[in-house]
Amino acid sequence: MNTWYSVDLGDGAAAYKPTEKIQGAFTAAYVLSGGKTNGIAAFSRYDLETNIVTVYFTPAAHRIAQAFNASPCEKPTTDELGLIIGDADSWHTFFPGDTPRDRH
């Protein structure tokens, strides 16, 4: 399965609580898997023009994505993208050869 998923959470302030819930769901999945991430991760992007935070779920995170009503999407570009939950190697696993950029 190579399908990524995304969901718009609203503006920065409105996105805070849903982001916490997403992080909680990932933490629960991590505990249930015996401490293995198994490729589940989520990244986010804040679009200054639209004032919208979008969360992107990796293909392995499809069950969590569905719980948050995320829709299938293309793999995101790395522009202004940040890791919100996942293991330390998630960036290099999903975007090999690219380095994280500072968010503006």
List keywords for this structure.
104 residues, alpha+beta, five-stranded antiparallel sheet, 3 helices, 5 strands, globular
Give a quick summary of the entry.
Helix content is 31%, strand content 26%. It is of the alpha+beta class and 104 residues long.
Could you characterize what this model shows?
By secondary structure, this protein is α+β, with helices and mostly antiparallel strands. It has one domain (4-94). The protein is built from three helices and five strands, in the order E-H-E-E-H-E-E-H. It has helices spanning 12-32, 62-67, 90-94; strands at residues 4-10, 42-47, 52-57, 71-73, 81-85. The chain has a five-stranded antiparallel sheet. It is globular, with a radius of gyration of 13 Å. The protein starts with a strand and ends in a 10-residue tail after the last helix. The mean pLDDT is 86.
Task: Detail the topology: elements first, then pairings.
Layout: E1 4-10, H1 12-32, E2 42-47, E3 52-57, H2 62-67, E4 71-73, E5 81-85, H3 90-94
Antiparallel strand pairs: 1-3, 1-4, 2-3, 2-5
Question: Which consecutive residue ranges, at least 5 long each, have pLDDT under 50?
Answer: none
Q: What would you call the shape?
A: globular
Overall strand count: 5
* Largest sheet: spatial strand order: 4-1-3-2-5
User: What structural class is derived from the secondary structure elements?
Assistant: alpha+beta
Strand content: 25-35%
Average pLDDT level:
86
Helical content (DSSP H or I, runs of 4+): 25-40%
Task: Give the tally of structural domains.
Answer: 1
Radius of gyration equals: 13 Å
List the secondary-structure elements in sequence, H or E. EHEEHEEH
- Count the DSSP helices: 3
The main β sheet shows up as: 5 strands, antiparallel
Q: Distance N terminus to C terminus?
A: 32 Å
